[in-house]
Amino acid sequence: MEQLLQQVMAGLATGAIYATMALAVVMVYQAIDHLNFAQGELATFSTFLAWQMIEWGWSYWAAFAMTVAISFVIGIAIDRVLFRPVRNAPILSQLVAFIALFSILNSSDGEIWNFTIKTFPTPFGTKPLFGSGLISTHQAGMVAVTLVMLALLYLFFRGSRLGLAMRAAAANPEAARLVGIRVGWMIALGWGLSTAIGAVAGMLIAPIVFLDPNMMLGVLLYGFAGAVLGGLSSPGGAVFGGFAVGIIENLAGTFIPFVGQELKLTVALIVIVAVLMVRPAGIFGQVAVSRV
Amino acid sequence: MTMQEHEAVALDTAAVPSEAAIARPLGLWLDRRRLLIGAAVIAGLMAPLVVANFTIFQLTMVMIYGLAILGLNLLTGFNGQFSLGHSAFYGIGAYTAAILMSGSAELSYYWTLPCAGAVCFVVGILLGLPALRLQGLYLALATFALAVALPQLLKSHVLEGLTGGVQGIVIDKPDPPLGLPINADQWLYYFTLAVLLVMFAAAAGLVRSRTGRAIMAIRDHPIAASAMGINTARYKTLTFGVSALYTGVAGALGAIVVQFVAPDSFSFLLSVNFLVGLIVGGIGSIPGSLFGGVFVLFVPNIAEKVSTGLSGAVYGIILLLLIFLMPSGAAGFVRRTAAWLARLRHTSTRGGA
Amino acid sequence: MMLEVRGLCAFYGQSQALYGLDFTLAEGGIVTLLGANGAGKTTTLRALCGMVRMTGEIHFEGKPITGRATEDIVRLGIAHVPEARGTFVRMTVEENLRLGAMTRRDHSAIAADIDEVYSVFPRLRERRKQQAGTLSGGEQQMLAVGRGLMLRPRMMLLDEPSFGLAPLIVAELFGILRRLNRERKVAMLIVEQNAALALDLADEAYLLETGRIVMAGPAPEIAKDEAVRRSYLGY
Fold first, then answer.
1. Which pTM was predicted?
2. Which domain holds residue B175?
3. Between A and B, how many residue pairs show a Cβ–Cβ distance under 8 A?
4. Comparing C-alpha atoms, which of C140, C127, C42, C123 is closest to residue C86?
5. Which residues of chain B have a CB within 8 Å of the CB of A258?
6. What are C166-210's pLDDT values in tens digits?
């Protein structure tokens, strides 16, 4: 029983990483109706920027704030420069754009900062939380930050005019244009937000998995899985999905005999596919009814 | 309408991918096409006699990747079902060939192709059934799960006896039959070429047939297609099977030519490569798949020559240039250039008359 | 003249849908575009809002608006109530109305305007917190018109407002449109298949057939025309 609880908590802790990533994934999905496959690499790049600032002597929170701001701008820039021209191309061509971006960022990270693993500081400390062996203060901090971000986003989207405009632009771009919303800029904003959230995710994750150009590969996959499980139309669902994936992965790895470390990801993905069979839009997702 | 006006109208509509994939009898256009294909085949036959062994190996791999990409094309390009999992079919085909050739069965290499094809066909059908419930993105995720799962399964203790675990399986290179005056590499090239021609011709035939049209109708307007009485489920599952078969046969060929299979060669990245090859070559274009094979084999090498450290970045930039300049892939580019050239010729003759 | 259109041609890809339309809409007037399915009525409205590829001249309040993005045209005071109503189905009725006012800066007046829309369409007030997608067809149409009104438009483009609605509801709706036109001086360009209704409401009418205007004139005269009566009015 003790072990079960421990694994669940450990799953929650890793799940926090996936949840943050899932949130960023859903954010950009809401804006552009696609998954951003380069999200992980953007997050890694942002984390490297933060690392560099800290190396240059900046304080943690100054670097953190600056990185989030720069990432926001980078996200907008990438959308306007790279993805706006291919918005009307077939969906698979847009996929190539993502793959290209992924390649460029991954390679550049390696070239600028090399592949040796770097440590990244945490503002939360790494002691066990409340002295128990279940979860460290950093991991608790991660969960807290994720939940705070979720709350802020909820307030933004439900309560503000701009949030409403963004939701409208994503839901029905043509109708949104007919009420005067500049849909193109709403999409760019979605990108900016998503890249900024990704940066936060990267900076939270780096202290645990250590910083190197391939840091986000696995995490992004889990992030997608969590987002899809929870429902791509629901930020809250995505966060839930991220946590769920973390727990499922851990429990499967510990308690199912032949799975072990090797097949953890496979099992997690199989579970997700199974859920999708039953609820194709994800657990909290809303099925889009399309009129013929 | 005059003959020229007919041509002009037909060339206009030739810009639409799903129709241009079926070669329309357009007089001048078709003859040129046949000529080009004939020239290509002749060049293909002569090539291994004039180039070095390693280049022969590369050309063989180009054909193999082209075949694998054609498999993906059948599913994604012609039937509209996304797959990020074709590295798994390629891997299953490869391992089938390797296991049959090295294990107690010790099958001759040419028998492994139909076996690999059959195995992958069955796997494809089995996957196609649940895939019916998933659309677009979610299907991509499910196939992605497959792609990630395969190397892990191949490495796991459970299957180690069969698959050789992390170390994989080594295969002997087959000899050319009955003392033909060519070396093993050249023989494998011709063997692959023969398989390629047969399978490409079969694919072209499939696409032109009623089945092919049904498959494409499902891609373009699934609801209308089923309203017209097309059994969507059956065709979609069938396409999954055939697509897997093609890529599986490519995998088997790949195993024979490379003489080695190991779990990490069949990772998710291979699926991405296939997808890139498909898009660059041209979705819904059968010859485009071969161009995709060329791209997948050579461009990463070129990128590395430009800059070893930033090879990924160079690769990415090349990809971006390609989609900006050729949004419909190489095949679309060729089609559009041909149409533009024909229009030029058309207007100049008209002006003269 | 609120709206002047000259030589309007529209294209879907390579095929042409409109072949040089000329029409005008006076300030505070109501014009109707009639025609069968596929005549090009919806295309005309879409062309006015920059939603399809077009050539020709369009002047709104004396200024040319061709080549502008849809969202910029809307900001000039043109509300377009589209064919499919363009309801934001997952959002509440109230959010839909607030979206109509998205381009306005006078925040304090917006709440008052929402109230006015509710007084014009009482049914919407009852359903203000409901998801718009759960409303009936007639209610969604009213919501679409209400949303258009939130813009405080000087001109409204309505695409088949009677489509799929029960006759009683349609009569109600058209009565409301007449009131709005009289009281708020909103010019209206109404595209309709239901010729009788439209001719009753409008000042001027244009008849479209396969992308060309084949008849134009004051609505009462068009209504009396023999050919129109046979083909479009059914008697």
1. 0.80
2. 22-352
3. 125
4. C140
5. 156-158
6. 888 888 889 989 988 998 889 999 998 888 889 999 999 999 888
